[in-house]
Amino acid sequence: MPTHRILAITGQTDEAPDCRTVRLDGAMDAQPGQFVMVWVPGRDEFPMSVSYIGDNFGVTYRIVGNGTRSLSAMNPGDKIGIRGPYGRGFEITGRRMLAIAGGTGMASIAPLVEKAVESGVEVDLALGAKTAPELIMRGRCEEAGAKVHVSTDDGSAGMKGLATDIAAKVLDGGDFDSVCACGPERMTTGVLDLAQKRGLPLQASLERYMKCGIGVCDSCAIDGKHVCVDGPVFSREVLASLTDLGRTRLSISGRRVPLD
Ligand SMILES: Cc1cc2nc3c(=O)[nH]c(=O)nc-3n(C[C@H](O)[C@H](O)[C@H](O)COP(=O)(O)OP(=O)(O)OC[C@H]3O[C@@H](n4cnc5c(N)ncnc54)[C@H](O)[C@@H]3O)c2cc1C
Ligand code: FES
After folding, report:
1. How far apart are CA 81 and CA 83, in angstroms?
2. Rounded (5°) CA angle 116-120-125
3. Beta bridge partners of 36
4. Per-residue DSSP letters for 6-19?
5. How many Cα atoms within 13 Å fall on the side-chain side of residue 258?
6. How far apart are CA 148 and CA 255, in angstroms?
7. Cα(227) to centroid of ligand 2, in Å?
8. Which residue, by CA, sits nearest to atom 43 of ligand 1?
9. CA of 207 to the centre of ligand 1 (A)
10. Is the CB of 150 under 6 A from ligand 2?
C-alpha cells in the first residue's frame, strides 16, 4: 500500500565513485523492482528503486544532477519525503534464474536476487559495469547465495565486454527458465534479443522521466504505456511490442528525443 512519509536519514554509504546508498528511519514493504518517489525539500522529486526492502529501507543512487547532488550532501537526521512503493516489480518464477544488471541497475536486481534465493530459486547473476570500481553490491549477492559472473567494458574486472556478452555466455552454459534484467536501455534491448532468440521468459525494468509516479501526468509514456504504473518491469512480449524501446524517450518538457 503506497504511503507518503517524511523520513529521517540514518546514514549514507559510498557504493562506488558517485554512487551512494541512503538509509532511512522507516520500513518499506515493497516487491523487488518497485520504486519510490524521493523528495529532497527545496530541490526536486525523483524516482528511485527500493534497493533495501523492509526495516533496512534504503535507496541507492548515482549522483547525476541537482536532486541527487543535494541528497548526497544531506546528513543523518536530515529529512526527506518518500512516496510509494509504486509500479509493478519482478515476479519470481521458475527454478533457475539469470539476473542481469548493468551499473546502478543493481539497485533493483540485488533485492530480487536475495528474494529469489530465499524462495528456493537457483540464481546466476551477470553483473556488468564500465570499470571495476563501479561494480556495486557484488558481495551482497554472493553472500545471498547467487553465482556471480562479472564483466567490465575496460576489462579491469571479470570478462572484458558488455553485460550482454557475459549474460550470453552464462545462458549458453546453463538450463535457465527465467531471465530478469535492469540496466541502461541499450543493455535491455540486447537482453531482449538474447531472450527472444532462446525463447526464454524475460522481465526487464525500464527508466523514463517521471513526475507524478501514479499514471496521471503522461511524462513516462512509451507506446501508450505508463512506465510508472504498467512497469517499470515489463514482460518480454510487451518489451518486444514497444517501438520506442532503445530509440526515443520524452524529455523533461515532453518532447520526443533520441535516447542518449
Ligand atoms: C523507475 C525508476 C527507478 C530508478 N531507480 C534509480 C536508482 O535506483 N538509482 C539511480 O541512481 N537512478 C534511478 N533512476 C534514475 C533517477 O530517477 C534519475 O537519475 C534522477 O531522477 C536524477 O535526478 P537529478 O535531479 O539528480 O538529475 P537531473 O539534473 O534532474 O537530471 C539528470 C538526468 O537524470 C534523468 N532524470 C531526471 N529526473 C528524472 C526523473 N524524474 N525520472 C527519470 N529520469 C530522470 C534525466 O534524463 C537527466 O538526464 C530511476 C528512474 C526510474 C524511472
Ligand atoms: S510519471 Fe506521471 S504518468 Fe508516469
Report:
1. 7
2. 45
3. 48
4. EEEEEEEEEEETTE
5. 1
6. 39
7. 7
8. 209
9. 8
10. no
Helices (H), 8-94: 66-72
Segments making up each domain of the chain, as ranges: 3-86, 96-258
Q: Calculate the dihedral angle through the C-alpha atoms of 50, 9, 210, 222, rounding to the nearest 10 degrees.
A: -10
Which pLDDT belongs to residue 225?
96
Contacts of 243-250 with CB under 8 Å at 24 or more apart are: 245/185, 245/188, 245/189, 245/192, 245/206, 246/185, 246/186, 246/188, 246/189, 249/208, 249/209, 249/222, 250/208, 250/209, 250/219, 250/220, 250/221
Q: What is the pLDDT along the chain (260 residues), one digit of tens a residue?
A: 778 999 999 999 999 999 999 999 999 999 999 999 999 999 999 999 999 999 989 999 999 999 999 999 999 999 999 999 999 999 999 999 999 999 999 999 999 999 999 999 999 999 999 999 999 999 999 999 999 999 999 999 999 999 999 999 999 998 999 999 999 999 999 999 999 999 999 999 999 999 999 999 999 999 999 999 999 999 999 999 999 888 888 888 888 888 87
Pick the CATH number of 96-258 from 3.40.50.80, 3.90.1200.10, 3.40.50.300, 3.40.50.11540: 3.40.50.80
Q: Give the per-residue pLDDT at 159.
A: 95
- Fold classified for 3-86: Elongation Factor Tu (Ef-tu); domain 3 (2.40.30)
Of 218, 249, 251, 252, the residue with max ligand 2 atoms within 8 A of its CB, to mutate for a pocket test, comes to 218
Burial class (CB in 10 A: 0-12, 13-18, 19+), 109: buried
Nearest of 31, 65, 14 to residue 231 by alpha carbon: 31
Cell reading at 3 = 504511503
